Amino acid sequence: MNQKNSLGLNSCFLDLEDPIQLFHEWMEEAKKTEPNDPNAVSLATSNKKNIPSVRMVLLKDFNQNGFVFYTNLNSQKGNELKTNPYAAMCFHWKSLLRQIRIVGKISLVADKVADEYYSSREYDSRIGAWASNQSEELKTRDQLIQSIQGFKKKFNDKKNVPRPSHWSGWNLSPDSIEFWLDGDNRIHERLKYTKNSHGGWKKSLLSP
Predict the structure, then answer these.
(1) Residue 186, helix vs strand vs coil
(2) Cα(first)–Cα(last) distance of the chain, in Å?
(3) Within 13 Å and on the Cβ side, how many CA atoms surround 32?
(4) How far is CA 155 from CA 118, 130, 131, 149, 167, in A?
(5) pLDDT tens profile 136-179
(6) Which residues are part of the catalytic machinery?
(7) Domain residue spans in the chain?
């Protein structure tokens, strides 16, 4: 028999007041079952004309303060976040038939945090952060290859590649987090946590 929690949902929703803790539990399950990048997440932003755009990024950290990813600050998403510092994330784990949707405000991580993560990356990835003018048009692929080679000459000491000022991390501080589980006949199970004015969380069930 399918066990239920106190709200009548599948037991995988647990009975937690803290959505970050529930996110942790679901992420740990995804790490066991997803063949590639369980931390891959779609990130939606919009520009000053309110035209949306979405792409996949990799979640690199999360805690009570929010969900962190890294990028070129002058990329399309970086420029859109400077204009409109609100974003949405959606995790989809096909192997588990689960989704998590997160909406909130974006802010830059501290320089020290960005430096620590940047220094943990592979040498070629650190060079790539310098060499690629992300989202800008390339005349030829060779233009990028030559840029990579040029920065490898400039930073030939693999242990000493400084983080470029245009590359850092964004933190999405959630206002709401929704957990979704696939159900038979499209009768899905949905649990939404909404942050209140005191910083606590309110739980509510949503119709599929």
Answers:
(1) helix
(2) 22
(3) 7
(4) 15, 10, 11, 10, 16
(5) 899 999 999 999 999 999 999 999 999 999 999 999 999 999 99
(6) 186
(7) 11-206
DSSP symbol at 90: E
Distance CA 185, CA 141 (A): 47
Task: Work out the mean pLDDT of the chain and round it to a whole number.
Answer: 96
HSE-up (13 A, CA, CB side) for residue 101: 9
Please give the C-alpha separations between residue 69 and each of 3, 10, 136, 167, 187, in angstroms, as whole numbers: 35, 30, 20, 11, 33
Whether this prediction's pTM lies above 0.90 is answered by: yes
CATH superfamily, region 11-206 = Electron Transport, Fmn-binding Protein; Chain A (2.30.110.10)
Structure-token match 């891959």, residue found? 40
Q: Indicate if the pLDDT at residue 189 is higher than 90.
A: yes
What is the greatest pairwise CA distance in the chain?
A: 63
CA 122 to chain centre: 20
- How far from the centroid of its chain's Cα atoms is residue 203's Cα? 22
What is the dihedral sign for C-alpha 117, 123, 125, 130? positive
Q: Could you give the CA distance from residue 196 to residue 96 in angstroms, rounded to a whole number?
A: 30
